[in-house]
Amino acid sequence: MTELSSAAPGGLPDKRQVAASFSRAAASYDSVAELQRDVGNQLMQRLPEGFVPSRWLDLGCGTGHFTRALAERFDAGQGLALDIAEGMLDHARPLGGADYFVAGDAERLPLRNSTCDLVFSSLAVQWCADFGSVLAEASRVLKPGGIFAFASLCTGTLYELRDSWRQVDGLVHVNRFREFERYGQLCAASGLRTVSLENRPHVLHYPDVRSLTHELKALGAHNLNPGRPGGLTGRARILGLVEAYERFRQAQGLPATYQVVYAVLEKPL
């Protein structure tokens, strides 16, 4: 997958749609965010041992779960929380954790150069069409020696749902994500030093397809891609999806695989 503008056919969704979708999901998000909490915790464990930032940024803070976790871990530092979705910020702000909550775009950060020791971003940058700009902005706002730690999603995510829909029709029903190799290429070209970069699968299980699709909607992460079908999905197609997905059933239930990218990058001194 190449870097496409948000309006390009087959590219990532328009960021205005992403912001609106996650704003609508703010109230329900935390109730179904098992994956998000697990991935964010894994990312925090990957921060360098003994690293104590004096100023940190939670990039794509969502409801502020990890804003508060970062504030607890780095209680002496100043915290910033940024998200493109105003609804998420409205939810997060009263819960605290950061000194400032800012509406902004990861591709054009409203921050001055060399102002942060840590940029932390868990499961947000997969929605950015121009990830090269995200890396450039993170590098710009980091102080020399600063860390950009991010978790994202790559191709292969929700392949069970994608393959099941493919049995039903040829339309786009599942969000697309860039390839893991592309993350590596962009990180290598960013000027930041790659401390670690890995792809790990994370599998959740559901009793039925409805439980999975309901969770995706509650997270605001349902299908946002250009080319998605409009209107209601017919009963016959839903039954076809259910039948096709049953091929993947395991003892624990229907699996949904997320291919998670974990990266820790350092700005050279």
Automatic annotation (TrEMBL):
Superkingdom of origin: Bacteria
EC number of the protein: 2.1.1.197
Alphabetized GO MF terms: malonyl-CoA methyltransferase activity
Coiled-coil boundaries: none
InterPro entries: BioC, Malonyl-ACP_OMT, Methyltransf_11
Reaction catalysis annotation: malonyl-[ACP] + S-adenosyl-L-methionine = malonyl-[ACP] methyl ester + S-adenosyl-L-homocysteine
Pathway involvement of the protein, from the record: Cofactor biosynthesis; biotin biosynthesis
Methyltransferase type domain: residues covered: 57-150
CDD domains linked: AdoMet_MTases
GO biological process terms on file: methylation
UniProt KW keywords: Biotin biosynthesis, Methyltransferase, S-adenosyl-L-methionine, Transferase
First-tier enzyme category under EC: transferase
Family from the record: Belongs to the methyltransferase superfamily.
Its job: Converts the free carboxyl group of a malonyl-thioester to its methyl ester by transfer of a methyl group from S-adenosyl-L-methionine (SAM). It allows to synthesize pimeloyl-ACP via the fatty acid synthetic pathway.
Protein name, as recorded: Malonyl-[acyl-carrier protein] O-methyltransferase
Organism listed in the record: Pseudomonas ekonensis
Gene label: bioC
